[in-house]
Amino acid sequence: MPTPLYSSDSFHRACRGEPVRQTPIWLMRQAGRYMAEYRALREHHPILEMMKNPECAADVTLQPVNAFDVDAAIIFADILTLLEPMGLDLEFIPGRGPVFHNPIQCGEDVRRLASVRPETDLAFTLEAIRITRERLDGRIPLIGFSGAPFTLACYAIQGGGSKDFDDVRGWMYRNPAAFTDLMDRLTEAVIAYLLAQIDAGAQALQLFDSWAGSLSQSEYARRAAPYTRRIFEALEGAVPTIHFSANGGHLLEQIADMPVSVIGVDWRPDPGQVLNRLGRDTVVQGNLDPALLLSSDEAMLEGMKQVLEGFSPAKGHIFNLGHGVIKTTPPERVKLLVDSVHACTAHAPSPGAERAES
């Protein structure tokens, strides 16, 4: 499927490993609590209400687009809303975060899960995508996303967040058949949801497997990778796809073996070592430590230069943080980073620059 041209299409060109005039940049959690505009909305609306109001979700999506010269927008949503229509009771509790009041405890709970019909069950996010596309008016592409099956399973079983999800892995080992059933159901739900996002207008998709890094290489290959692969196979050729896993540096080779366009890297692995392992014919996204945006301008910009230099031999590079923007980040630091990435790469060789069109 041909990719349409945009006023700023460096993001899509980088996803395809094509020459770019400057390195594209967008940031995970680029819309959120660090922005005064977002906090003003949160004073009057609970977060789930904001996500389920398409006009409000579009407003939040566009806040960083209007404030910074980012090269892609990402729809304001949450990976956990996909679990609600399956039968899990989700609540965001201030000071605690997301909580499921009826977590999965046994195989019967898995068998009771409902199938997801994205066009009706998640219509609010799909409509937010349509509205955002219209408001963007071709300025930059819009990214949709979902959680990967293993990460969704972690929250569904745990009933909320955890530092390591040890209890979930224990449940997985004790209930292998039920866990396989759960992963199959989640995979089908994610595929349906992401295809619906494409139909609604998403121009790229990111799969967040935030907790896959808690698995060993062998357990990831057995219990998570086959389901993630099925998702990327179902999406192959439709729009550019990105995989991101926090603390998943030991899994990079397995992820790169999937039909995914871009490999997202958190801040822990060294860019040069990543390319030594995966080869230079790879498109990568990342991987500045988000804590550097809490430091001095000098330290942040030095870290930025190291990331740009480290990934410069890659077939393509999309600059991003190694995780989401931290809520205490000064907005002016985000602006400086975005502008500096563009300034530092506008006239310097970028990935594939030797093939760049005049």
Description:
This protein has 358 residues and is an alpha/beta fold. The chain has a single domain, classed as TIM Barrel. The protein has helices at 10-15, 36-42, 47-52, 54-67, 107-111, 118-121, 123-136, 149-158, 166-174, 176-200, 217-223, 225-235, 252-256, 271-278, 297-311, 331-345, and strands at residues 73-74, 90-93, 97-100, 142-147, 204-208, 241-244, 262-264, 283-288, 316-321. The strands form 2 sheets. A 7-stranded parallel β-sheet has the order 1-4-5-6-7-8-9. Strands 2-3 form a two-stranded antiparallel sheet. Helix 4 packs parallel to helix 7, helix 8 crosses helix 9 (166-174) and helix 10 runs parallel beside helix 12. The model is unreliable at 1-7 and 353-358 (pLDDT under 50).
